[in-house]
Amino acid sequence: MDDIRDRVLGTNLAESDGMDWEHEVSTDATLAGELVAEQFEEWSRLPVIHVDAVSTDNDIYRLGDHLALRLPRRGSAVAAIDKEHTWLPRLAASLPLKIPLPIARGQPSRGYPFPWSVVEWLDGAPVGAVDAKDSSNIAYDLARFILALHGNDAAGGPVAGEHNHWRGAPLNALDVELRRRFTLMADIPDIGEIIAAWERGLAVDVWAGPLVWVHGDLKGSNLLLRNEALHGVLDWGLTGVGDPACDLSAAWSLFRGNARAAFREAVEVDNATWARGRAWALIEGVLALSYYRGRQEDLAQAGRRVLDQVLADERD
Fold this sequence. Notes:
Elements lengths: L1 H8 L19 H11 L8 E4 L6 E6 L3 E6 L6 H14 L9 E5 L9 E5 L4 E2 L9 H15 L24 H10 L6 H12 L9 E3 L8 E4 L2 E5 L6 E3 L7 H4 L3 H11 L3 H22 L4 H19 L1
Antiparallel strand pairs: 1-2, 2-3, 3-5, 4-5, 6-8, 7-10, 8-9
Helix pairs in contact: 4-8, 5-9, 6-9, 9-10
């Protein structure tokens, strides 16, 4: 495992193409239905309905009552399909919440250039659509899920890197990219405080334990509620093997006060891991605010709110 950790520590986000996106492919329900009818006759009569989901990489369609389609919008999102088909069935049995297991793999056709997936449809309302900031019950449910995921055998898993936007890599692997983002945010009044918080995160001890499975994107829109309890976890495109701290960013993006305290107690992490988790929340806020300003203001403001929580916690 030490040689794997050395490989991660030797990476740098600046060596990749960063986090900006190349040209996207457009899809619609008609195309999705044609792909299904051509490649999966058994589902050809099921209705195909576009899902208005918060997804940066895929277009999502519901297929009948029990299935969904994930159609990548860009080439960089294709790697997630192979990863999900390989690993999600192996992880699912040990997890206390439902995950959208892959059912079938579609092929490029009809002018659509990428492989695509048929997955299980999970019912529920996104946590992002409700007020979860004071919910200790949701905090405990999420902590229980994280502990179960991190407890899986990570041998052979995909080490954090470009394939999952470096979720779970050491924080210094993202330093060059964060510095570039700071220049794009130079007009923000508290940018100096944001930079100082990031530098404090970089100074925290790196993860010295075994690398673990991480989800990498535990935001509210990827967490489903049913009967006021967490029911499912969506969008495993950023999963990989690395530092468990990246999955703790939900403490600042979702929870406040007593709920955050309940989450911290339940995940049972040391102070350094908690501090790195706060730095991952800062990364989440910086990337969202710097990229979406002037494009999608709702997502930009979501990033701003995460940064506000991080800075407030740093001041306490």
